User: Fold S-adenosylmethionine-dependent nucleotide dehydratase RSAD2 from Salarias fasciatus.
Amino acid sequence: RFFHLLLNPRLRRARALSMSWLVFSPALLLRLLCSSILTLLSRLRSYWTAAAAGPPGQRSEVTPTSVNYHFTRQCNYKCGFCFHTAKTSFVLPVEEAKRGLRLLREAGMEKINFSGGEPFLQDRGAFLGSLVQFCKQDLHLPSVSIVSNGSLIRESWFQKYGEFLDILAVSCDSFDEDTNQLIGRAQGRKSHLQNLYRIRSWCQQYRVAFKINSVVNAFNVDEDMSEHIVQLDPVRWKVFQCLLIDGENAGQSALREARRFVVSDRQFEDFLDRHSGVACLVPESNEKMRNSYLILDEYMRFLDCRGGGKQPSRSILDVGVKAAICFSGFDEKMFLRRGGKYVWSKADMKLDW
Assistant:
């Protein structure tokens, strides 16, 4: 072809003309550059879509039936075993949080639990109230719940938002004020137990199902709480075994060092045996707890705890629920086995208000 071109003047002139047009045409160069960029972006989009779907063996469909949204890490207590610590002060704008909640509802969410940090800390509870009302009134969720330490809850909040809330869980690890102080379940010398009993009364008055969460640890493992729990009569008493999470309450980068709070499996079982007569008790060992919760952090990223720490997915606000949930590490079988799905709408509870 080279000698044919060399010996043929007409072809030689045509080739020179085409090469001259290629070299000296900025418009063509610009078109080629734009085409290359578009091709690159298309390939990157394909790569991220495939990556977001997760590794081939982990792409099974997961429905976010029950989701725990920790929209803030800030807290006014200093519980020594806390496994979701104040590593950032970030909170999403309320409209962005609502957008994420709508995405979850469209993906099949039936229950949302708001937690922290302390969820009543943001805007004195107004931020939380807005989300609670949105989930019940706009998204028509069967169940909306909150976990709080109870210290910042006011009756005025119940008056404004109580009708939209199904369950309020208050954390209480001891019925001895000195023990609560040792644990860090306190703010100054204020009585944690007085708040607990006051909130129980408000829940009764404003028709919100009352729940108690307790963490069994080295400071309360020998306590008998039966009498107090029976008196308070919660719909559920969740009893957790103190859990270590790398980067949160264990390890060099952690804000807490919870090893001194840890109890053995045998000690945890002894605590459960001591309270076996309490009908509302729902126990959760480390094995049951670690991977059986769908946890969203303050950026609306699912947190995978399978490796002992918390590895975040990409935010559902960026990639959607289906893509992000593949990286949640969620164990749906354990979720069902630990009784994660129960009668969680107050409309279905036969409570004596």
